[in-house]
Amino acid sequence: MEDNLNCIYRVINFMEKNYDQPVSVKELEDISHYSYRNIQRIFKYSCGETIGAFQQRLKVENAYKRILYTQENLTSIAIEVGFANIASFSKAFKQHFGISPKAARQSKEQLLGGDAIIPITSEVLLEPEIIYLKPVQVYYQSINTYYNNEEIEVLWKKFMENDFPESGTEYFGVIADEPLIKTEINCRYDACSSVQSCYKKLPSKMIFGGKYARFTHSGSYETIDDTYTKIYSRWIFNSGLEFSHTPIIEKYENHAENEDDQEKQLTYILLPLK
């Protein structure tokens, strides 16, 4: 079972890096250490979709991020995410989201309601720090969730059973899918440590590397949605900055072991910039 899970992590990580490129049978077999037929079966059972459907979703969701956060023209976006032309891109995009790329570009504001993960209403304007971060290798476990605090808490309890060194270990949460454009497929959240487990070998990958807008959330994780609401309602569309399609990352600077200390918790929310 653990071998299957590590195999899925490897395939997901590879597909995220290469979603805009043709992926061959041999590449998938080399990455997974399974036959093509078996990795397809394991992936569909574990993730609820085929590898091909996963790649197509990555293409259109990354395109939507570019539509949302950049001024690139639609033809350039289509080519960048791996479509041969604007026609095939428009067809896949509309099948997935029920709206054309052109309409999505013209009506960004529609994303701020409906099925968005966050109800976007706030009078508070947050201002981030703009920082540059070097790449960091992390060791991780994942969960598919609708950014649900209870499910994420269960993941972290399981993750911390891996027995990480108390000194010098940093912890991160990687939100793999953009909350504003989430579809019926659950978002993926990665619990990450900067140090390998003392208990078992966890899969690894690189995060960061580049320019970020860093927001600070003080207090309990249960209220972090309030901070996201302030970011998305007032700042993100009026900042004049262009955003990268790489994931949002949370860095857990201070963590409270009991409820009495939760107000002392400190979480950095890092939005990638171009």
What are the key terms here?
eight-stranded antiparallel β-sheet; 2 domains; 274 residues; alpha+beta; Arc Repressor Mutant, subunit A; Multidrug-efflux Transporter 1 Regulator Bmrr, Chain A
Task: Outline the structure in words.
By secondary structure, the protein is an alpha+beta fold. The protein folds into 2 domains: 105 residues, Arc Repressor Mutant, subunit A (Orthogonal Bundle); 145 residues, Multidrug-efflux Transporter 1 Regulator Bmrr, Chain A, CATH 3.20.80. Helices cover 38% and strands 20% of the residues. It has 9 helices and 8 strands. An 8-stranded antiparallel β-sheet has the order 1-6-8-7-3-4-2-5, with helices on one face. About 3% of the residues have low confidence.
Write the layout of secondary structure elements.
Elements: H1 2-18, H2 25-32, H3 36-47, H4 51-69, H5 74-80, H6 86-97, H7 101-106, E1 129-133, E2 136-145, H8 149-160, E3 171-175, E4 187-193, E5 204-207, E6 210-218, H9 224-235, E7 248-254, E8 266-273
Antiparallel strand pairs: 1-6, 2-4, 2-5, 3-4, 3-7, 6-8, 7-8
Helix pairs in contact: 1-3, 4-6
Q: Can you tell me the residue ranges where pLDDT is under 50 for at least 5 consecutive residues?
A: 112-120
- What about the largest sheet? 8 strands, antiparallel
What number of structural domains do the residues give? 2
Our count of helices gives 9
Strand order within the widest beta sheet? 1-6-8-7-3-4-2-5
Radius of gyration of CA atoms, rounded to a whole number: 19 Å
Series of secondary-structure elements, N-terminal to C-terminal: HHHHHHHEEHEEEEHEE
Strand content: 15-25%
Overall pLDDT metric: 82
Structural class: alpha+beta
Query: Any idea what the shape is?
Result: globular
Judging by the overall fold, what is the CATH architecture of the largest domain? Alpha-Beta Barrel
CATH-defined superfamily of the largest domain: Regulatory factor, effector binding domain
C-alpha end-to-end distance: 39 Å
Total number of β-strand segments? 8
- The CATH class of the largest domain is identified as Alpha Beta
Instruction: Name the assembly state.
Output: single chain
- Share of helix, binned: 25-40%
CATH topology assignment of the largest domain: Multidrug-efflux Transporter 1 Regulator Bmrr, Chain A
